[in-house]
Amino acid sequence: MDEIVLAQRFEEYRTHLLAVAYRILGSGSEADDALQETWLRLSRADTEEIENLGGWLTTVVARVCLTMLQSRRTRREEPLDDHEYEELAVGPEHEVMLADSIGRALLVVLDELSPPERLSFVLHDVFAVPFAEIAPILGKTSTTARQLASRARRRVQGARAVADRDRQREVVEAFLAASRGGDFAALLTLLDPEAVLRVDGAALATGATNAFGARAVAETFSGRAQAATLALVDGRAGLVWAVGGAPRVVFDFTVSDGRIVAIDLLADPETIDLMELQPQP
């Protein structure tokens, strides 16, 4: 294949290859280095024998990244700093790498995985590469590659669960502070535009009402919740109003993408008895 044509074909796959390299390595500069090495290997290869260029390039860049990961671990390098994470966000060619499938928090978790675990997980779970194709890259069986990815997946899911709980607590704490302070604008920023307040029958009997939309929910809570305290409600951050140590009303929050989409105000004693409540400092 003519070198100019070969270079054009390589450019067709550049964005994909850069995404693969970045997700495996977590470093923009190292991902660029991996692409450069992949191009050098392609330029030296007998392209007439390559039936699936995209698959061939993905395999090569993965092998290059695996070698780089193993070398990094041998040198006992420190985790990548924030500057390197941000480096990749420059320029439209990197937009694909800013998808939710990989974020800074996930990169930190991936740094704790072994190179084979990291490669198996990224190739299979992010790029849907079959284990039969991952196994030769690792020099292992398909079963082993599957086990490596499964082990990595459990660690990633655990880290995400912790991050979600922490984020929910931040949002609920901010909501409580804004509610007590009567900060209507802050409440609006914390609420999804379609947020709802759902009130059970026991709460309705005390005068509480349902509310629909961010403004209505914010108006309901602005300047209130003075006696509510932070608590874990079935393992997630919420609020509780207690009298003499006995919970009388539970505020159960549903948070998505950093915003409150629903608040369930529960006052039925039987419902509250079934909930696991843990007061928080």
List keywords for this structure.
2 domains, 7-stranded mixed sheet, Nuclear Transport Factor 2, Chain: A, alpha+beta
Description:
- With 281 residues, the protein is of the alpha+beta class.
- The protein folds into 2 domains: 3-140, no CATH class; 168-279, Nuclear Transport Factor 2, Chain: A.
- The chain is built from 12 helices and 7 strands.
- The protein has helices at residues 3-25, 28-44, 53-74, 82-87, 104-110, 115-126, 131-138, 142-181, 184-190, 201-205, 214-221, 269-273, and strands spanning 191-199, 211-212, 229-233, 236-243, 246-256, 259-266, 277-279.
- Strands 2-1-6-5-4-3-7 form a 7-stranded mixed beta sheet.
- Strand 5 (246-256) and strand 6 (259-266) form a beta hairpin.
- Helix 1 (3-25) runs antiparallel to helix 2 and helix 8 runs antiparallel to helix 9.
Brief digest:
With 281 residues, the protein is of the alpha+beta class.
Total helices: the number is: 12
- Portion in strands: 15-25%
Largest sheet, strands/sense/barrel? 7 strands, mixed
Radius of gyration, whole Å: 25 Å
Overall average pLDDT: 84
How many individual domains? 2
Low-confidence stretches: 77-102
Instruction: Name the overall outline.
Output: elongated
Distance between the termini: 68 Å
* Element-level helix/strand string: HHHHHHHHHEHEHEEEEHE
- Classification by helices and strands: alpha+beta
Q: Helical residue percent?
A: 55-70%
Total beta strand runs: 7
User: Strand order of the main beta sheet, please?
Assistant: 2-1-6-5-4-3-7
